[in-house]
Design a protein that fits this description.
By secondary structure, the chain is of the alpha+beta class. The protein has 22 helices and ten strands. It has helices at residues 9-42, 46-58, 60-63, 75-90, 98-125, 137-160, 169-174, 176-181, 185-200, 207-210, 214-228, 274-301, 310-326, 336-344, 351-366, 368-371, 376-390, 393-402, 404-419, 422-439, 476-485, 504-519; strands at 70-72, 235-238, 244-247, 333-335, 451-457, 462-471, 491-502, 523-527, 532-534, 543-545. Strands 5, 6, 7, 8, 9 and 10 form a six-stranded mixed beta sheet that branches. Strands 1-4 form a two-stranded antiparallel ribbon. A hairpin with a 4-residue loop joins strand 5 and strand 6. Helix 2 (46-58) packs antiparallel against helix 15 (351-366) and helix 4 packs across helix 6 (137-160). The radius of gyration is 25 Å and the shape is globular.
Length: 555
């Protein structure tokens, strides 16, 4: 761990501009195809993704509460944006042309993004950053896995060169076999080559190859294949089976010739309908939760171990989403993959995020004609690989190792999310976890209210917190606030011997608190766990109190 904290602001720019400029440039090469692909997955014009990346870089680098995160559009919100587009499409006034219906849905969705930003401003003002401790990790991972499945299920049709007829997610997934039967061979070849590059390139053990961003290589190779297959012109070709297949510009990214032509303004007349309010809440909840989790994860990777200001992070995302949506951009969050790459590239300050946004602006202003030649199949392949990683078998295996009850919550969240929407899926996962806790003996009165006493030994500088009834995700915020009020450099003992259950989320949170507190010079320990039985062999598994049988007199 490095000890000297880097300077921030203009002083940081002056001292670290070389490393931040290099990292920002590399991240922009990764972000460019992702911005375009996420817009594709969201059902909006490609420029919407670019705008979000530019605003997330140029603006949020100055206001963000985190130091090394990269801000822009992310796959996690693509599914919600698509739901919004489809919902408003069905609400379009009669008499509009197909193009006008699409613009109507897009503009209404932009208004939702502004509403999301306003809610996030409120979250920041009331210091709701602590809410990141409320949602159980099994529900959050289930939500991300569901997003991965939906992204994969939607994009595989584009990768096959087929447009699905279904509108609901279950219908779209059910159509996959039919799309495979009617695939477009040359489009599939572009997709397969793209997937091979994405999977194979990072595995090549070469310093120079490792420096090449796989998404960028996918785009360059796919553009060359697009030229070879003449995707720029509408035509038909015969394949080995003698069947005629169509190719043309519809398989390429469509960008306006001028950057200013891509700016679209929102319309607010449908914002406060029941559907509009539902979308605002879904946007704000998922965007805020993902950003906070990403900021927390990147703090752990930061060589200087700087701590993000979560409330400032929410406020910054709110202002960013208002600006991005006001000019036609997608919602903005702190994105974990690009942020991790930023750390690995040696970034030091927030200016790396700024440079990433600046390079995106340069690309779209000066290279828009080149971007138009990117095949949609290449972007779909990037998203498919992203979706697979979010919902890979490893995620199911990892959850099972934590505990069977965690797997039940994880899978339930996935199924309900796919069948309904993200907000209902999250609520269903939380409800199922509460039911499981009740079955495991947690008193209903302690589900949301923590019961604990604080004893202070001033002479020994020891703070002992005796927790009663339960220590679970839904009442941990109160306990966390008490922990945060204890001065640094003391000795803290959390005694959970009187609890009936300590759940996985709390075990994980206390472990993270232990690391942070000891880093600040204090001592932290958990006592009373010897009275509990771990529900799996995982170090952070839920702990259930052992019920000891007592013999009656005379037996």
């Amino acid at each position: 761990m490095l000890t000297q904290i880097p300077a921030d602001g203009l002083a940081g720019l002056k001292k670290y501009w070389k490393t931040d400029l290099l990292s920002g440039f590399i991240i922009s090469l990764i972000a460019l195809p992702l911005c375009l692909g996420i817009a594709l997955a969201s059902g909006v014009p490609p420029m919407a993704g670019i705008i979000a990346g530019i605003v997330g870089g140029l603006m949020l680098s100055l206001t963000s509460g985190s130091y090394l995160t990269i801000n822009g559009p992310a796959a996690g919100l693509a599914v919600i944006v698509l739901m919004s587009i489809e919902g408003f499409r069905s609400m379009a006034p009669a008499g509009l042309s197909a193009t006008e219906v699409e613009m109507f849905a897009y503009q209404c969705t932009l208004a939702v993004g502004i509403g999301c930003g306003v809610l996030q401003l409120g979250f920041g003002l009331v210091k709701a950053g602590v809410l990141s401790n409320f949602f159980p990790s099994s529900v959050v991972h289930g939500m991300l896995a569901a997003i991965g499945i939906m992204i994969f299920g939607k994009q595989i049709h584009t990768a096959l060169g087929v447009k699905p007829e279904g509108k609901e997610m279950l219908e779209i997934i059910a159509e996959i076999p039919q799309s495979i039967m009617h695939l477009n061979p040359e489009i599939v070849l572009i997709s397969l080559v793209s997937i091979l590059i994405l999977i194979g390139l990072p595995k090549i053990k070469s310093k120079w190859i490792q420096m090449l961003p796989a998404p960028l290589m996918v785009v360059l190779v796919a553009i060359a294949m697009g030229y070879y297959f003449d995707l720029e012109h509408q035509h038909k070709y015969l394949f080995l089976d003698g069947h005629a297949y169509e190719l043309g510009p519809k398989f390429l990214v469509s960008l306006p010739a001028n950057f200013m032509d891509g700016i679209v303004f929102p319309r607010f007349d449908y914002l406060f309908t029941g559907f509009g309010i539902q979308m605002m809440v879904s946007y704000a909840l998922v965007a805020s939760l993902e950003s906070l989790l990403t900021a927390s994860a990147i703090d752990k990777l930061d060589p200087w171990k700087r701590k993000s200001n979560f409330n400032r992070e929410l406020f910054a995302k709110g202002t960013g989403n208002i600006v991005s949506s006001m000019i036609g951009g997608l919602p903005i969050i702190a994105e974990v993959v690009r942020s991790s790459a930023n750390v690995n590239n040696g970034a030091t300050t927030r200016w790396a995020n700024f440079f990433h946004g600046l390079f995106l602006l340069v690309f779209v202003v000066f290279l828009s004609q080149l971007l138009h030649h990117i095949p949609l199949a290449a972007l779909a392949s990037i998203l498919m690989v992203t979706g697979y990683r979010l919902a890979s078998p490893k995620e199911f295996s990892k959850t099972l190792k934590i505990g069977r009850e965690q797997l039940i919550i994880f899978i339930s969240t996935i199924l309900v999310t796919i069948a309904t929407d993200l907000l209902i899926g999250i609520l269903a996962g939380v409800l199922i976890k509460l039911i499981i806790h009740t079955i495991n003996g947690v008193p209903i009165r302690s589900l949301f209210k923590p019961f604990f006493t604080l004893e202070v030994d001033e002479e020994a500088q020891v703070y002992t917190i005796d927790v009663e009834h339960s220590a679970v995700f839904s009442n941990f915020i109160g306990l966390k606030k008490q922990l945060d009020r204890i001065p640094k450099g003391k000795t803290i003992v959390v005694n959970v011997g009187k609890t009936k259950l300590v759940d996985h989320t709390v075990m994980e949170a206390l472990h993270a608190y232990d690391i942070d507190y000891q880093r600040s010079g204090g001592k932290f320990s958990i006592s009373g766990l010897e009275e509990h039985r771990a529900m799996s062999e995982h170090s952070h598994a839920s702990r259930k109190r052992i019920v000891r049988q007592t013999n009656s007199v005379g037996e």
